[in-house]
Design brief:
The complex is a heterodimer. Chain A is an alpha+beta fold. Chain A has 20 helices and 21 strands. In chain A, helix 1 packs antiparallel against helix 2, helix 1 packs across helix 10 and helix 4 runs parallel beside helix 6. Chain B is an alpha/beta fold. Classes of the chains: A alpha+beta, B alpha/beta.
C-alpha cells in the first residue's frame, strides 16, 4: 500500500502525460504480482466497494475528532479524503511502536480484500483498523480508493498505455483483450512483458481499435482524384463503436465503446438495449429529438452522469448514425474495401428492425469545388435541419481498408471554418510543467452594452512559442493586479491586448457571468494592431447563439 | 493586576505601557523590541531597537547600517530592565537569532514568542519553553491537518528525485532568510556533497550564516556557474523566482517548494510544484499545543494565523484564550507569506 500510495502522490503533481506514464510503468516494473494488478484495477476504475462510502468516513472521523476543529479543517482543505487522512489521530501506543520498528507495509491486495469482503456492519471497524495502520499518504490513498474517482488525472487508457510501455505490445492491443480480463491481470502483465501468450478474449463483443482521419490540408486536394473518394458528413457527436454478438449461453451481448475503447454501455443503457443487429458498427452517437439531430451541447448533458434516470433517457434519446461496418455476424469485414463495407452496412441497416440506428448518408460530389460548397453550407446540400450538428465533411478513399490508428492517406477530415471573435485579454494565469514560468492561460472578454468587459472564455493554446513569449512579456509589463498565480492585465478601451479567438460553438451557461460558454476556444491570432475598444460586443455573440444555424460561421455577427 | 496593563495590542503592534516600548511594531516607533529578522516583524525606522546580535546583524544586512537610531544587543537568558519592566530574550528555534521575549513586572510574566518551532534545526539555537502567566503565540499552522513530518524524511524525497532525474536541475523554493539555509544544512546532513547553487537573493544571508559558524558546505551563485553545471544541481531560490523569467535558464527543471503549506495537496498543485517538501520553520498543530502547555500559562493570546482553531482548542484545554487580530504579520517574507490561491480571489 505504501508504494501504491506513493505512486498516487507523485501522479498528483506530475502534469505531463509522458511523465505520468513513466511513473506508472516504473511502478509496474518494480512491483510484483498480484500487487501491481490491483493497482491497475484501481487506476482503471475497476474497483468498487459497496459498503464503504463517504458517509461512513464522516461518521468515523466524527467519532474521533472535535466537530469544530473538523469543520474548520475541512473548510480549509476542501477535500474530505485529504482532511480525514491528515486529521486521523494516531492510535494509542502507535508512537512507541514506530520508535522500535517501522510498521510493516500493508499489501494493497490485503486492503482490497478486506474492503471487498467486509459486510455493512463490519465495515466501520475494518476501515478504522486500516486507517490506524497506514501513514498519512496511505490513508489519503485508501480514502481516495473507496470514495471512487481517484481524480489524479489518470484515465483508464493512460494506465493501459503504461502497461504497454513494459514491452512491445501496443495500447490498442491491450484494449482488445481488456474486456476478457479481471484483476489482478497476471496474464496481461506476462504478455506485456513478453513472458506469456496473448490472453484470450473471453468477451463475445470486444472492442476493435478504431480508424482515425487526418485533418485535410486543402492544398493537397489538387493531387487527389475526386472519383476515387467518398464523402460523408462529419457529425458533432461522440464516435462510438457498437458491438453485438451472441455469448456462450446464446444470449446477445451488446457493448458500446468510446473511440479509446472505454465501455460506455452503462451511460446509454437505452441504446444498448434497443439495438437489434449482429456485428460491429462504427458510427456517431447523437441525441435525436423528433428525428432531428441535436447539438453537441445537448448531448453533453447526457454525459458523465452517475445515475441514468428514465427521465434523462426520455429527454435525451440516444441514437447511432452508422458510417462503417467492422464485422457482420462473426465475419470480420475490416479487410474489405470501403465501398464493399458500405454496401453491407446499408443492407444491414435496411433489414434491421426498428431501432435507434440509421445510415449516415454519402454526399454526392463530382469535384472538390462542389464538396467545398457542401462543406460551407450543409443545410442546403442535404443535411437540412441537421446541419447544426455537422462540423464538416469526411473524405474516405473508396478502396480503403479499415486500419487501426491514424494511417496517412485513406481518410481525411475537412472541418468547417471555426467562428472567430475579437476579445480582450483580461486575466492571465501561469501554466504548468514546462510552461510554469509563462503566463499561458488566458481569460478574455467582450464589451457589454454598458461599456464593460465581461469574460466569455478561457484559452490556453493555439499560439506559437514565439507568440507565447510576446504575450508573457505583455502580461508582465501590464499587470494591474495579482491574485496568486493569476494576473489581471490592463484592459481599457485604449490600452490592452486584443486576441482573435476561434471557437466551435456557443451554449448558454449559468456558470459564466456572460451567460455564454464557448466550445473549444483557442487563440487564432494576436491583434496588436487593434485597440481594445474595437473588440467585439456581447450582443454579437448572443446573436450567434440565437441564429437558427448557431453552429455556422457568421462573420457579420462581428461588431467592427 | 490585569495582564493588559503590562502588554496590549495596538494598531502599531504589542505595546507595553509601563516600559513604553513595542514588540515587533509594524510602524516606526521610539523604542522597539524585535523577536527575529523576518521583515514583517523587523522593520526599519525605529528610534531604539533591542534584539539579539544576530537579528540586529540581519536587519543591517537588509536595511543598511542606519536601520534604527540606536541599537542594543540582547543575549539569550540575560535579564535587562526598561523603566522597571524586566526583559529576557529566550531562543525561539525559528531562524538564526530568533527569540521569545519574556516580560516580568510586579509578579506577572508574559512571553511574546514571535514565530517559533520546537523541532530540531541545525541553523539556530533550539526553542526553550519559558514559564509564564500569559503566553502569546502565533497560529500559522493552527489546524489539526498541519502535522509536519520529520524534515529529514522530506529531504530524502529530494535526494530520491535527484537520483531518479540526475540530469535535471532541482529548483527548491525556500524563503531567503532561514528556510534557505536550513534546507542547505539538511541536505548536507543527508550526505549531499555537491556545491549547492543559489539565486542572488539568497546570497548575502547565506554568507552571514556561514560567517556565524554554521557549516553549509560549498555554495555558489547560479550566475557564476557554466550552464553544463546546472544539470542535476540543487538550486535554492526564493519561491517567487520559481515562476519568474529567471527560472527559464534551466532546461527541464524539477520544481520543489519547501514549506509547511505543502502539506495541502491543492495548495501545492496551485503553485505548479512537482516536488512538495513539507519543511516548516513554524510549529505544527501538536507542537503548538505542547509548547503552550509547557509554559504552564493560564492565558493564551493568539496573534495571527488560524486563530479560531487554536483558541477553540485552548478553551477545551481549560485555558483562557483570545485572538488579538493583529494585522501586518504574515504579509511579507517568511513562511506566513503564501499568497492567497487564485481560485479564491480571481474571477
Amino acid at each position: 500500500m505504501n508504494r501504491f500510495a506513493a505512486l498516487l502522490d507523485r501522479l498528483v503533481y506530475e502534469p505531463r502525460r509522458n511523465g505520468k506514464i513513466a511513473l506508472i510503468a516504473d511502478y509496474f516494473r518494480h512491483t510484483p504480482d498480484p500487487e501491481r494488478g490491483f493497482a491497475l484495477a484501481a487506476l482503471t476504475g475497476a474497483l468498487s466497494f459497496r459498503n464503504a462510502k463517504p458517509g461512513l468516513i464522516r461518521q468515523l472521523i466524527a467519532e474521533r475528532t472535535d466537530p469544530v476543529l473538523f469543520a474548520l479543517s475541512y473548510d480549509y482543505v476542501g477535500d474530505l479524503s485529504e482532511t480525514v487522512a491528515l486529521m486521523w489521530p494516531a492510535p494509542a501506543g502507535a508512537a512507541a511502536v514506530a520508535e522500535t520498528s517501522p510498521a510493516p507495509d500493508l499489501p494493497l491486495s490485503a486492503v482490497i480484500d478486506a474492503l471487498s469482503h467486509a459486510g455493512r456492519s463490519q465495515m466501520p471497524a475494518v476501515l478504522a483498523s486500516l486507517l490506524d495502520r497506514l501513514d498519512e499518504t496511505g490513508r489519503w490513498a485508501l480514502l481516495k480508493l473507496i470514495t471512487g474517482g481517484l481524480r489524479i488525472g489518470v484515465s483508464a487508457r493512460l494506465a493501459k498505455t503504461a502497461v504497454a510501455a513494459l514491452g512491445t505490445v501496443m495500447p490498442d492491443e491491450i484494449e482488445l483483450v481488456w474486456p476478457g480480463l479481471a484483476p489482478p491481470y497476471e496474464a496481461l502483465f506476462a504478455w506485456a512483458e513478453g513472458r506469456g501468450e496473448r490472453p484470450e478474449t473471453l468477451d463475445p463483443a470486444p472492442f476493435r481499435p478504431v480508424m482515425l482521419a487526418h485533418p485535410l490540408e486543402e492544398a493537397s486536394l489538387a493531387a487527389l482524384d475526386p472519383a476515387g473518394y467518398r464523402a460523408e458528413w462529419k457529425w458533432d457527436g461522440i464516435r462510438v463503436q457498437a458491438a453485438r454478438a451472441r455469448g456462450p449461453d446464446g444470449a446477445f451481448v451488446t457493448r458500446l465503446y468510446s473511440r479509446t475503447g472505454e465501455d460506455i454501455s452503462g451511460t446509454f443503457p437505452d441504446l444498448a438495449e434497443a439495438l437489434g443487429f449482429e456485428g460491429v458498427i462504427d458510427g456517431e452517437l447523437l441525441i435525436l429529438r423528433e428525428g432531428r439531430v441535436q447539438s453537441f451541447n445537448v448531448l453533453q448533458q447526457r454525459l458523465n452522469r452517475k445515475v441514468v434516470s428514465s427521465k434523462l433517457i426520455a429527454e435525451f434519446p440516444a441514437h447511432i448514425r452508422a458510417y462503417d461496418l467492422l464485422a457482420e455476424g462473426d465475419e470480420d469485414v475490416r479487410t474489405l474495401p470501403f465501398d464493399d463495407r458500405r454496401a453491407r452496412l446499408e443492407a444491414l441497416v435496411a433489414r434491421a428492425p426498428a431501432q435507434p440506428l440509421d445510415l449516415s448518408p454519402l454526399i454526392a460530389f463530382a469535384t472538390w469545388e462542389q464538396l467545398a460548397q457542401v462543406r460551407a453550407e450543409p443545410a442546403g446540400h442535404g443535411a437540412g435541419p441537421d446541419a447544426e450538428a455537422v462540423e464538416g465533411v469526411m473524405i474516405k478513399r473508396a478502396d480503403s481498408l479499415y486500419l487501426p490508428g491514424r494511417p496517412t492517406g485513406p481518410w481525411w477530415k475537412w472541418k468547417r471554418d471555426p467562428h472567430t471573435v475579437d476579445a480582450v485579454l483580461m486575466y492571465a494565469q501561469r501554466g504548468h510543467g514546462k510552461r510554469s514560468s509563462y503566463y499561458s492561460d488566458y481569460t478574455f472578454g467582450v464589451w457589454t452594452e454598458a461599456g464593460e468587459l465581461v469574460p466569455v472564455g478561457k484559452a490556453y493554446f493555439g499560439f506559437t512559442d514565439a507568440e507565447l513569449i510576446e504575450i508573457d512579456r505583455f502580461v508582465r509589463q501590464n499587470t494591474v493586479e495579482r491574485f496568486g498565480p493569476v494576473r489581471e492585465v490592463v484592459h481599457t478601451p485604449s490600452k490592452g491586448l486584443v486576441l482573435e479567438v476561434a471557437f466551435e460553438g456557443l451554449a448558454r451557461s449559468t456558470r459564466h457571468r456572460s451567460g455564454l460558454a464557448m466550445r473549444f476556444p483557442r487563440i487564432a491570432r494576436l491583434r496588436w494592431d487593434k485597440p481594445p475598444g474595437e473588440a467585439d460586443r456581447l450582443e454579437a455573440l448572443e446573436a450567434l447563439l440565437d441564429s437558427p444555424a448557431g453552429a455556422s460561421p457568421s462573420p457579420d455577427a462581428r461588431a467592427r | 493586576m490585569r495582564p493588559i496593563e503590562l502588554l496590549q495590542p495596538t494598531p502599531k503592534g504589542l505595546y507595553c505601557p509601563p516600559g513604553d516600548f513595542f514588540i515587533d511594531p509594524v510602524r516606526p516607533v521610539a523604542r522597539a523590541l524585535i523577536t527575529h529578522g523576518h521583515s514583517d516583524h523587523a522593520r526599519a525606522g525605529h528610534g531604539a531597537v533591542l534584539a539579539t546580535r544576530e537579528t540586529l546583524d540581519i536587519m543591517a544586512i537588509r536595511y543598511g547600517d542606519d536601520f534604527a537610531g540606536t541599537t542594543q544587543a540582547a543575549s539569550y537568558g540575560e535579564r535587562v530592565e526598561i523603566n522597571g519592566v524586566g526583559i529576557t530574550f529566550h531562543p525561539a528555534g525559528h531562524i538564526l537569532g530568533s527569540a521569545q521575549i519574556a516580560l516580568d513586572w510586579q509578579g506577572l510574566t508574559i512571553v511574546a514568542s514571535g514565530d517559533y518551532k520546537p523541532g530540531a534545526d541545525p541553523t539556530c539555537a533550539p526553542f526553550a519553553p519559558v514559564r509564564c502567566d500569559v503566553f502569546i503565540s502565533e497560529a500559522t499552522f493552527g489546524l489539526p491537518v498541519f502535522r509536519h513530518p520529520p524534515a529529514m524524511a522530506e529531504i530524502a524525497k529530494l535526494m530520491d528525485s535527484l537520483a531518479l532525474f540526475p540530469e535535471r536541475a532541482h529548483l527548491v523554493g525556500a524563503y531567503s532568510l532561514g528556510k534557505a539555509q536550513r534546507v542547505i544544512a539538511l541536505l548536507r546532513a543527508a550526505g549531499h556533497d555537491r556545491p549547492i547553487l543559489m539565486h542572488g537573493a539568497v546570497e548575502r544571508l547565506t554568507a552571514y550564516y556561514i560567517a556565524q559558524g554554521i557549516s553549509l558546505g560549498a555554495v555558489r551563485l547560479v550566475r557564476e556557474v557554466k550552464p553544463a553545471e546546472l544539470a542535476g544541481a540543487v538550486v535554492i531560490a526564493p519561491p517567487s523566482a520559481l515562476s519568474d523569467v529567471w527560472s527559464r535558464r534551466f532546461p527541464d527543471p524539477v520544481t520543489a517548494f519547501a514549506s509547511g503549506w505543502m502539506r495541502i495537496r491543492a495548495r501545492a498543485r496551485q503553485y505548479g510544484v512537482e516536488l512538495p517538501l513539507i519543511i516548516s520553520d513554524h510549529a505544527d498543530w501538536s507542537e503548538l499545543q505542547d509548547a503552550i502547555l509547557a509554559t504552564g500559562c493560564s492565558e493564551l493570546w493568539v496573534t495571527h494565523g488560524q486563530e479560531d482553531a487554536l483558541v477553540h482548542w485552548a478553551g477545551l484545554a481549560g485555558l483562557r484564550a483570545q485572538p488579538l487580530h493583529m494585522v501586518g504579520y504574515g504579509e511579507e517574507d517568511g513562511e506566513e507569506a503564501l499568497p492567497a490561491p487564485a481560485t479564491e480571489s480571481a474571477p
